[in-house]
Amino acid sequence: xxxxxxxxxxxxxxxxxxxxxxxxxxxxxxxxxxxxxxxxxxxxxxxxxxxxxxxxxxxxxxxxxxxxxxxxxxxxxxxxxxxxxxxxxxxxxxxxxxxxxxxxxxxxxxxxxxxxx
Length: 117
Fold this sequence. Notes:
By secondary structure, the chain is an alpha/beta fold. It has one domain: 3-Layer(aba) Sandwich (Rossmann fold), CATH 3.40.50.2300. The chain contains four helices and seven strands, in the order βαβαβββαββα. The strands form two sheets. The protein has a five-stranded parallel sheet with strand order 2-1-3-6-7, sandwiched between helices. β1, α1 and β2 (about 30-35) form a beta-alpha-beta unit. The protein starts with 5 loop residues before the first strand and ends with a helix.
């Protein structure tokens, strides 16, 4: 079980955040939510999550633009890039751990992805 593993979800869709939180709490993750890019950046530094869900279109900027910096500063963090609008994939540093998930998110896809975690 992934006890003590932390997930940071940075997404302005409150309902999606709550559904993801419920899903991962049942799987024994600690889940932290942020609805803006600036707040998410602060929480990232404070919580140092194992996994981050990063939406692209946020009220105060484009989350995917932050992804390469996150991958560089937190190389052990697994980054899940989330978007409904199919933006261009950011140039990620070599060896970074990331995946793109398109909205709507299917819990069956999450089950497959995190089964080995």
